[in-house]
Amino acid sequence: MPYIKEEKYDEKTTAEIAAHVEAILSLIGEDPTREGLLKTPSRVAKALQFLTKGYGENGKEIIKSAIFDEKYQQMVIVKDIELFSMCEHHMLPFIGKCHIAYIPNGKITGLSKLARVVETYARRLQVQERLTVEIRDCIQEALHPLGVAVVIEAMHTCMSMRGVQKSNAITTTSAFSGAFLNSAKTRSEFLQLIGK
Fold it and tell me: Which of 6-20, 80-94, 168-182 has the lowest mean pLDDT?
């Protein structure tokens, strides 16, 4: 089994969040001193810090850390990037996948950097529409390619677990720039390659 690195958290922040979680447990009618809940406030505090760690990361710097000169000018696609984010309206998860393409303009980036950019912006309180545009803009501004395409498909638990309670609904958003925006043929090729 692979070793999983333990995340480091600021003790003061963890303690402050945990105190609020303990108060919430009381407010919903639970007893935060019962055995099963004793460590819950601290666990929730650490989970929230992990799920929002994107606030401390810079997507453009991630891409700029691995830029290489390359004359390749065809589409580069990374599809089915797993995505976990939290809806800013209810602080409930939305889960799905992100497909990214770009057309290099003399520069390429490490493929893993595209997945890290998705992670950076997903690990913030989000709406899917903004997340899609933030990923596109980050790649466009850091790499200056001939175009960027981003499609996200996600299931929102705020819609499946509460409210309208439609568990099979999938939300799809897209954002395009450059060649993907200006050429229906290029956009169509991308959508075909990701199976849309």
Answer: 6-20
So which residues are the catalytic ones? 87-90, 128, 156, 158
The reply to whether the predicted model has a pTM over 0.90 is yes
Print burial letters for 16-45: b (CB count within 10 Å at least 16), e (below 16): ebbeebbeebeeeeeeeeeeeeeebbbebb
In DSSP terms, 82 is beta-bridged to 97
Which residue is it, tokens 């007893």? Answer: 31
- Over residues 75-108, the pLDDT tens digits come to 999 999 999 999 999 999 999 999 999 999 999 9
Q: How far apart are CA 193 and CA 196, in angstroms?
A: 8
Q: Which residues contact 158 (CB under 8 A, 6 or more apart)?
A: 87, 89, 90, 92, 94
Q: Which residues have a Cβ under 8 Å from the Cβ of 28 and sit 6 or more positions away?
A: none
Instruction: Output the CA–CA distances (angstroms, integers) from residue 12 to 9, 39, 175, 195, in the order listed.
Output: 9, 16, 39, 47
pLDDT 10s digits, 101-123: 999 999 999 999 999 999 999 99
Asked if 156 and 121 touch (Cβ cutoff 8 Å), the reply is no
The identity of residue 67, as a single letter, is: I
